[in-house]
Model the fold of this input.
Amino acid sequence: MESCDIRIVLVAPSHPGNIGAAARAMKNMGLSALVLVNPREFPHPEASARASAADDVLRAAHVVPSLAEALAGCGYVAATTARGREQYYRVVDVRVAAARLVAEARRTPAAVVFGAERSGLSNEELEMAHALIRIPASPQYASLNLAMAVQLVAYELYRAQGAPAPVSVPLAAPLASTQEMERLYAHFTEVLEEIDFRDRTQSGTHLMARIRRLLQRAEPDQNEVNILRGILTAVQNQRRTAGGARR
Done:
């Protein structure tokens, strides 16, 4: 079976036992790239005990201070959530997400992001994902233990590695990396300030968040991000040629 470069990213895990159990779940399903963002306690004896024979996954785990650093170099990113969202995120079934992740990871690293046990992922963290994964569960009690969620996603990823890539997956160029997308958003912010384009809603604080979600749903590749940044640069140059003062 062809291996895929898929990172399992745990954001602020509070229980070391869950880290160890997640590592075991990963090894069961042929995954090895574990990234921990600000874990409360790691390394820890309980993590090693719960990992069982997956100590190698724990030893190779990367501990980083931010989600942005955890996703460095990644193209496609999916995040897990158990809560309903009202801000136009794309939500996909875990099996559909697994097929997409495997297809993308054959070209450039991909990642699945899991939130903290109590609070999950913040909206700011979700904005770094192209899609949200919803794991079907009983509406009476839909909240899954962190390690259990990792096990279910890892299982679907294992199954998907034998499946053909979905026909909807773009194959021309790799998706833009998280760093490239962040540079695009910073460029957008700069140009919007220069042309005095403001959020006209009552709160006046959601414009860039909406632009981010729009572009994350669009899933631009590297060439498309370069085109967008070229357009933004042309707008800036045109203003300077016309005598527009930078703000």
User: Anything to note?
Assistant: Residues 6-160 form a domain with the Alpha/beta knot fold (CATH 3.40.1280.10). The chain has two domains: 6-160, 178-241.
